[in-house]
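Lab channel / #folding
Pinned by the channel admin:
"Please post every new chain as: sequence first, then the structure tokens as a reply. Keep commentary short and put observations after the output so the thread stays searchable."

First post following the new format, from NK:
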Amino acid sequence: MRALATSLALLCAGCTGSQTVLAPMGPQAAQLNWLLWSFILICGIIWLLVMFVLVLALRYAAVPSQRGERRAAVIVGVSVAASALVIIVLTVMSYAATRGLSVAADDPLVIRLRGYQWWWEVTYTDRRPDRMLVTANEIHVPVGHPINIELSAADVIHSFWVPNLVGKQDLIPGRRNDLTFTASRPGVYRGQCAEFCGLQHAHMALLVIAEEPAAFEAWRDAQLQVARPPETIEQEAGRTFFVSQPCAACHTVRGTNAAGTLGPDLTHVASRRTIAAGLLETTRGSLAAWIADPQTIKPGNNMPMVTMTPEQLRAVSAWLVDLQ
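Reply from TO:
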């Protein structure tokens, strides 16, 4: 069983942005993978035994006898006892495999993840206030370092699930839940909301990007910087328009007058692989389409459509796509 699981994991491990429980890339995911294959093996054996008993019952059903009835009663009694024992064993195995998902680790990197309809706010905590970092829909973590995720929700119940790294855990309004995981290998691992949370539930994804510690620190240092200044007249016009419109009341762009907290922080939006919580690849065209009519792309989201001319749309998209 373990050899089969390992083979499948190696086949899946090379997939960029993979999302599968069959390719565990951390100790917590490995525990859940072991639990999955154990359940499959035990349930498979039970199914074979049931089929065997069914064949015997069909074979001897035509010859009823008192001795046969006593034997049937014994078989039923043994089966009931065996079923109870199997349920107990599976329950204990499940508890043993999942209890470590919320156990505190030594010196973890603490990340606060807050779910909204329908995106993720990611906050990197630090003892130094100037090292606090807020981003969205993308979690960068150092390989080999324990990560503690503090989960909460702003509106309805959501559920965090990155199957390659850790099991599911709900985000509940007014309550904090915790998950602990460690990424064993560099890679891009796709996660998603696993609890129906409204119209765009299926479009509430996120990426966990595991990288070497040095690369992670370089990424974090870059993210802590303010937004880069415009380099062209078009970008300057885009920034001027952005901060003068309702955009600045909802979004933060550090280094400008935009300081809203209702929507994702856009200081380094172009450094993210996707926008709209995994719905679109981050390109200038995608940004322009999203700004022009967000309700057509993701109906029901809380971003209003801002009226602008084609020239203003091109200017804003040119500025945003430069925010690396």
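NK: Residues 27-60 form the longest helix (34 residues).
TO: also worth noting, The two ends are 46 Å apart (CA to CA).
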